[in-house]
Write a structure and sequence with these properties.
- This protein is mainly α and 504 residues long.
- The protein has 22 helices and no strands.
- Helix 4 packs across helix 14, helix 6 runs antiparallel to helix 8 and helix 7 runs parallel beside helix 10.
- The longest helix has 54 residues.
- The chain is globular and about 75 Å long.
- The chain starts with a helix and ends with a helix.
Length: 504
């Protein structure tokens, strides 16, 4: 019975049934964020854009600590034992209140003088203390959003969170920034609009959560033993999230200290473009942690292997052409943003490769964090963070953007590969096979062919670049449908297309 249940979870349709809405919302979020990034960069310029990016990175770094690991722990707490789901949902108010209260502390400390110290000692940018303080106002709301995301993904219903985070938030941010631009504000329009968008998206999701996440009210007192059981592993999961996020932002933070705000602005734009590579992995993996936890609870390693392997293989198929396009034409972002955003091809190539490899290997972490081996993952990520701090302190002061890119590639990809090897050794499961290498080679070959075909006519203009990328996508799509997609994949896509068009 247990085996049949987990095998059902490994089925293709169950694995992908939430993907159309998730993908549509995430594509919308990326598109709006990309358009907003273009507008911001052109209006305020690279130096001021870099100042905002540093403040936002600090917000994100704090926002990964204040949820106390609940955004990950709830995946396991709610997903591993469906028969106790209703009772455990009643505990959510306590978890949310605790995290929200903790998130108020950095705001208070910043208002008491910490933001001024940061401006004077670390990031010596004009008005940075005020910008940081206003940015941190969003922290309690971002924290509660993170906790609610863990709850929704834990019950295998990520759609409300995805709508709030990927539709409401970027739309509100773009509209508010546009309105503030219209009345004459520039950098402050971005800062205020960003903080306000967190508050608005939080209000939308919090109202929806009152309907979806109430649980059963039986009049019985809270099961504090069960609540304490979550806090046995949530600190280590939270530490893993902290280490993982700091690993991802160390390059930008070091560049902000040793470089100029213009360097940070250019580097942030490269990261913004490269994030498109991981879109497929994000949309397919929204409920992956909860399913891995349930498979492991039933001791069904075959189903766990299939769930993880299918996620990685399909993420690779959908991400590879975007990776190849960024690799060949990503350094032409200045055609859209202007000459102040002229970037180095080598920096773009290293960041694109890093993002693609992370998309492939990072979800193997669920095989540790969702199966009771979270302390091992925490130790691995903590070691990676120490290495990141060391290598960033060596490379960034000497080589600037390229040093930051190489340092982040070495640490992030290194951690992901070691974690994959640990999972392979511990569980004996193979979740990455040769099809990933074939997919990558096919994407690079089709993009390279499009580049060579258009080379005699390439005048490095935006229309020419768009045409080359379109040709590469067309060549890849046709080749992938014949060579990479299985009959099962085609059947799943055919069944999901009506749902996708309904979402649109």
């Amino acid at each position: 019975m247990a085996s049949s249940r987990t095998t059902e979870l490994a089925s293709s349709y169950h694995f992908l049934k939430g993907a159309p809405l998730n993908a549509a919302a995430m594509i919308y979020a990326k598109a709006v964020s990309f358009v907003a990034g273009i507008i911001l960069a052109r209006v305020i310029g690279a130096p001021q854009y870099g100042i905002f990016i540093v403040a936002r990175n600090i917000l994100e770094s704090c926002g990964i600590i204040t949820p106390l690991g609940l955004n990950v722990a709830l995946l396991r707490h709610l997903g591993a034992e469906p028969e106790r789901l209703s009772a455990r949902l009643t505990q959510l108010t306590f978890f949310r209140s605790l995290a929200f209260g903790l998130a108020l502390a950095p705001c208070v400390v910043a208002a008491m003088g910490l933001s001024t110290f940061v401006e004077e000692a670390i990031y010596r940018y004009p008005q940075f203390s005020s910008i940081l303080l206003v940015t941190l106002i969003a922290l309690p709301f971002a924290t509660d959003l993170a906790v609610l995301s863990g709850a929704y993904r834990g019950i295998l219903r990520p759609e409300p969170y995805v709508i709030a985070n990927c539709v409401v938030q970027p739309t509100a941010r773009l509209l508010l920034i546009g309105l503030l631009f219209a009345i004459g504000l520039r950098l402050w329009a971005v800062v205020v609009g960003t903080s306000a968008s967190y508050v608005i998206s939080w209000a939308v999701l919090a109202l929806q959560a009152r309907k979806d996440l109430t649980g059963s009210r039986t009049g019985r007192p809270q099961d504090w033993a069960d609540i304490r059981s979550l806090f046995v592993y949530s600190p280590s999961l939270g530490a893993s999230m902290v280490f993982s996020t700091w690993l991802g932002t160390a390059d930008s933070l070091f560049l902000g200290h040793f470089g100029t705000s213009k360097d940070v602005g250019q580097y942030a734009v490269i990261l913004m473009v490269a994030q498109l590579i991981g879109l497929a992995g994000e949309s397919l993996g929204q409920t992956l942690g909860a399913r891995v936890a349930l498979c492991f609870r039933h001791k069904d390693l075959i189903a766990m292997e299939k769930v993880l392997a299918d996620n990685i293989r399909r993420a690779a198929i959908l991400s590879a052409p975007i990776f190849a396009a960024v690799l060949f034409w990503g350094d032409r972002i200045d055609l859209v943003l202007g000459p102040s955003f002229a970037v180095d091809f080598a920096v773009v190539a290293v960041i694109a490769a890093r993002t693609f490899l992370q998309t492939i290997f990072r979800y193997s972490g669920f095989a540790l964090s969702m199966t009771g081996w979270h302390l091992r993952e925490t130790a691995l990520l903590g070691s990676g963070l120490l290495f990141s701090l060391l290598i960033c302190s060596i490379l960034v002061p000497r080589y600037g953007q390229l040093g930051a890119a190489v340092a982040s590639f070495a640490t992030l990809v290194g951690v992901d590969l070691v974690r994959y090897a640990v999972v392979r050794t511990m569980f004996g499961i193979k979740i990455v096979d040769t099809s990933v290498a074939m997919t990558t080679a096919l994407a690079v070959m089709t993009s390279g062919l499009a580049y060579l075909l258009m080379l005699p006519f390439d005048d490095r203009t935006l229309p020419s670049t768009i045409l080359q990328a379109a040709i590469s996508f067309a060549l890849y799509a046709g080749s992938a449908w014949l060579l990479l997609f299985t009959s099962e994949d085609r059947a799943v896509i055919s069944s999901l297309l009506p749902t996708f068009f309904q979402v649109r």
